[in-house]
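input
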Amino acid sequence: MPIDKSMNVLIVDDYKTMLRIIRNLLKQIEFNNVEEASDGTEALAKLRAGNFGLVISDWNMAPMTGLQLLQEVRSDTKLKQTPFIMITAESKTENVVAAKQAGVSNYIVKPFNAETLRDKIEKVLGHA
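output
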């Protein structure tokens, strides 16, 4: 089964340049229905209002971190099944463990390219 590339993807980062980079990488792998949120609170509001097939969030944001956003998503009955990929600048073991415990679907360490992003999305959406 091919991946549904028309699904809505929410990208969350408090750094505009990073949002643009992720959007461009998604476009390269043919995901065009992309919405942005610049913090966890905005992301949650969009997720609760919309219908997203995937969340790609930065770890390091304020005031709500990517980990807190993930915890909110996983504790919301309507959202808890949503695939969630975390982007982190450092692959510290404790970060990875915390994200796994919170129910992250997968994570990507910066910097990354379209190929890596596609691999992670395919893994998360269960179509290898």
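quick obs: The beta strands are 9-12, 34-37, 54-58, 84-88, 106-109.
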